[in-house]
Specification:
The complex is a heterodimer of chains A (89) and B (121). The radius of gyration of chain A is 19 Å and the shape is elongated. Chain A has 2 domains: 1-39; 41-89, Irregular (HU Protein, Chain A). In chain A, helix 1 crosses helix 2. Chain A has helices at residues 3-14, 18-37, 83-86, and strands at 42-44, 48-54, 58-61, 68-71, 75-81. In chain A, the strands form 2 sheets. Chain A has a 3-stranded antiparallel sheet. In chain A, strands 3-4 form a two-stranded antiparallel sheet. Chain A is α+β, with helices and mostly antiparallel strands and 89 residues long. Chain B has 121 residues and is α+β, with helices and mostly antiparallel strands. Chain B has 3 helices and 5 strands, in the order ααβββββα. The two termini of chain B are 32 Å apart. The chains are: A alpha+beta (89), B alpha+beta (121). At the A-B interface, helix 1, helix 2, strand 1, strand 2 and strand 5 of A face helix 1, helix 2, strand 1, strand 5 and helix 3 of B.
Chain lengths: 89, 121
């Protein structure tokens, strides 16, 4: 499934035009991206929680040369599934 | 940020009623849940992908009694941030990551090793 499928579903459910649905769906993901960029946690009842977490600096190794390379500390996103996603089996 | 903030944002950007915005936001997430429940994966360019990972059954132990128990197979939803999102959270000062095309791959750059060819359709 890709964004277009979500857009179609949204247009259908909300009875809005596809153009409008594109705008709205982009707004949802853009807002989420913005929040994560600010390091904010996103909590969506039933769906899950997105959290920006710092990652430690690490020492990696170039597998070909065996030389050590430093991996800079970065951030990553952790998604913790919520209630509606916990019963997938 | 909560769902209410997303609803507000949709109202602001696409100029729909609050009621509509609520339906829209709920539909976005319920369609993702639906897809995952059908073992489908969801790929959102620039954002990331959701897929189901299978965890095999294993022998566990009841920590209190020490009894062996069989832990059944599980299916766990997994989110993998896309390249654009990763760049966003790691370069807060830079809104438009410019190195997008340097590591271009046939599928557009999101972890090519895991991208299914059919996912582009």
């Amino acid at each position: 499934m890709i964004k277009a499928d979500i857009i179609n579903k949204v247009a259908e459910e909300a009875k809005i035009t596809k153009v409008k649905a594109v705008e709205a769906v982009e707004a949802v993901f853009d807002a989420m991206k913005g929040a994560m960029q600010r390091g904010e946690r996103i909590e969506l009842r039933g769906f899950g929680v997105f959290q920006v977490k710092p990652r430690k600096k690490g020492i990696g190794r170039n597998p070909r040369t065996g030389r050590e390379v430093r991996i800079p500390p970065g951030k990553t996103i952790r998604f913790k599934p919520g209630k509606n996603l916990r019963s997938l089996s | 940020m909560t769902k209410a903030d997303l609803v507000e944002e949709v109202v602001r950007v696409s100029n729909v009623s609050k009621k509509h915005a609520e339906i829209i936001v709920n539909t976005v997430f319920s369609s993702i849940v639906d897809a995952l429940q059908h073992d489908d994966k969801i790929e959102l360019r620039g954002f990331g992908s959701f897929r189901v990972r299978r965890r095999r059954s294993r022998q566990g132990r009841n920590p209190k009694t020490g009894d062996r128990v069989e832990v059944p197979e599980k299916r766990i939803p997994y989110f993998k941030p896309g390249k654009e999102l990763k760049d966003l959270i790691n370069h807060q000062d830079d809104d438009t990551p410019s190195e997008d095309n340097q590591t271009a791959t046939p599928t557009g750059g999101e972890a090519p090793a895991y991208v299914d060819p059919e996912s582009n359709s």
